[in-house]
From TrEMBL:
This is peroxidase. It comes from Cannabis sativa. The lineage of its organism: Eukaryota, Viridiplantae, Streptophyta, Embryophyta, Tracheophyta. Keywords: Calcium, Disulfide bond, Heme, Hydrogen peroxide, Iron, Metal-binding, Oxidoreductase, Peroxidase, Secreted, Signal. Residues 42-202 form the Plant heme peroxidase family profile domain. Ca(2+) binds at residues 66, 118, 126. Its cofactor is Ca(2+); heme b.
Amino acid sequence: MKGHYSKVMLILFIMSLGLVGTLVNGQGTRVGFYSRTCPKAESIKDKFLAKGLNTQDLVTLVGGHTIGTTACQLFRYRLYNFTTTGNGADPTINPSFLPQLRALCPDNGDGAKRVDMDTGSAANFDATFFRNLRNGRGVVESDQKLWTDPSTKPFVQRFLGERGLRSLNFNVEFGKSMVKMSNIGVKTGSDGEIRRLCTAFN
């Protein structure tokens, strides 16, 4: 119930602010944080910083992957021939989790098949996503790097309430970071329009 409540609040947040969309097709939601390949943590942080967002915002907003799916073609490279040693998979993947991912995304299988990014809690907006990262169960490589990178790991630990660190409430911090992100490149006047339908011009 708590997770569903959070998703409703997120929808209300978006509706209450409205969306001033670009008048150029295909650029309405492009922020420019990610390329098609998996970026290094430093590269991602630099892009967030350029938009006025800090490392905590980065970890918090990526935590939005607690709901949603990704396509096999975007992470399957981690499962097969990632290395030339061992089982060939990305060594940051928990060995007990690897068979599950390979069953969902066989080598040379359907690359468009969708897979939950937050295994076991995909329907709830909660901090389970971060627990999965701690346990080596991140599906996307850039997500898992939040745990292996020393600059982002402490924030994951704080969302998990680990002893010795000041804890963070994911639902609260996500709302704060969303507000900060909503103020990036705000369009006013004739620069854009408040769309009646987000995917189409008025």
